[in-house]
User: What shape does this take?
Amino acid sequence: MYLKKEELNSDLDLEQIKKILGRERFQHTLSVLKAALKIAEKQNFNLKNVETAALLHDIAKSKNERELKDMVKNSNWEPDRLELEITPVLHAPAGAVMAENIFGITDPEILEAIRFHTLGHPEMGGIAKVIYAADFISEDRYFDGLDEIRIEIERDFESGLYLITSHIIKYQLEQDNMIHPYSNDFRNKLLKRSD
Ligand SMILES: [Fe+2]
Ligand SMILES: [Fe+2]
Assistant: This one.
């Protein structure tokens, strides 16, 4: 996917983002942006904010564990103790720190979307849900069952989100990984809704 500056609502500098992310992650980011806009258009969200959150969601992904921990320490987005032990999720709070400090983002909905895109959170808002879902169903991902989830996201967004949280938790259990309460609580909330 190639994207021209004039096709964007967001004022972000794409070259700067590409430089930080590297070519491959930038491509993933563009796939997430495309998926996010498709969901957001149907849901009537502020597309500029969705774009900004999508473009910056993985902005900290190239940083190493030490850098990530240093970034989030004493920040507005300090992770809890369990998150600090689940290293693959740390680029999310660190990404919110970079979005604030490097890109001057102040909108809490955008920052929250970056902050919780890995674990999810039961109280997260609409834009955060869009980014969480888009990161999972983006066109650069392939695995069994994903097409059914893509269809469900289109049919009923919240029900699709429930499938995503369930898939992630099942996968983490199979890998014998820790499950963060944010993810579990998010799934429980979506499950209750579908009763
Ligand atoms: Fe990520
Ligand atoms: Fe991502």
Summary: Residues 11-142 form a domain with the Hypothetical protein af1432 fold (CATH 1.10.3210.10).
